[in-house]
Design brief:
Its cofactor is K(+); NH4(+). By secondary structure, the protein is an alpha/beta fold. The chain is about 35% helix and about 20% strand. The radius of gyration is 20 Å and the shape is globular.
Length: about 280
């Protein structure tokens, strides 16, 4: 029988995004593991709700079973703190017996409006706590978002537009003859003036998107010359590569940190000394 180590302060952070579930396992303040999974159906969450250790979870949700000594030897379920932008998934996870939903009113930023996404607020709060304010967070996910706060922890505002993959898929789905271009096939910048349809789509989307991001970055620095900029999201590697090729000086000044939301969640959770 495998020996189990009793760890009282293990807790899970779950970011429910539009496309995937993003997970983190913390030991107190220390981030130990991160991984992504697909959205899961009610039946799987019901199965998880019957488990008392992480080793018992389905490997489709927790792929580290039997691999690391991170098991809770306890009669209670590992706590899950959730930040979600998908209400239907949020509702399903409330089946789990030890869950807490992090809400906007728990984030100590000033001037937030009621419909601000909790993911944007937490990423900004996490980035500001680690690297300082003023801070602009660029989240290159399903949507591309900009969210900034000033040195007084007050929300400056931001913007939302379709992300790289969404722009490609929309062109393919909403037109009669244009193909869907997958971001995974794009390994380098396309020719700006393309001679075939797929590369023409790549050129149009990528160069205008990079130009738009550059414009937001320069606008941020005009407001806050010493302001910092952090980048996260599923497409952040592609965007950083494009900036390194086109605007290397800007690329060198960007903070790349995919776990910004988890740092924001940690700040909220650590207010509860139980998990320190």
């Amino acid at each position: 029988m495998k020996s189990q180590k009793r760890i009282e302060n293990i807790w899970l952070a779950l970011e429910i995004g539009n496309s995937r579930l993003h997970w983190a396992l913390f030991k107190g303040e220390t981030l130990d593991l991160t991984w992504d999974t697909e959205h899961v159906p009610k039946s799987v969450i019901q199965q998880i709700a019957q488990c008392h250790t992480l080793d018992d979870w389905p490997t489709t949700v927790f792929p580290f079973s039997q691999q690391k000594e991170i098991v809770l030897e306890t009669s209670t379920h590992p706590p899950i703190f959730i930040a979600s932008v998908v209400p239907s998934q949020t509702k399903l996870w409330q089946i789990y017996p030890n869950v807490e939903i992090i809400t906007l009113d728990q984030v100590p930023l000033l001037g937030m409006y009621p419909t601000l996404g909790i993911d944007r607020a937490l990423a900004l709060w996490g980035a500001g706590k680690i690297w300082g304010l003023p801070m602009l967070v660029i989240d290159a996910g399903t949507t591309l978002t900009f969210t900034g706060a000033d040195i007084n922890q007050c929300l400056v505002g931001g913007a939302i537009l379709p992300g790289l993959g969404l722009q490609f898929s929309t062109l393919g789905q909403k037109t009669g003859q244009l193909p869907i271009v997958e971001t995974k096939v794009i390994t380098s910048l396309p020719p700006r003036f393309a001679l075939n349809t797929p590369e023409a789509i790549q050129s149009g989307v990528i160069y205008t998107l990079i130009a738009g991001i550059k414009d937001f970055i320069e606008a941020w620095w005009s407001l806050f010359p010493k302001g910092k900029i952090a980048v996260k999201g599923g497409d952040h590697t592609l965007l950083i590569n494009y900036f390194q090729a086109l605007y290397p000086e800007i690329a060198a000044s960007l903070i790349v940190e995919p776990n910004l939301i988890f740092w924001g969640m940690r700040e909220i959770v650590m207010e509860n000394s139980k998990y320190k």
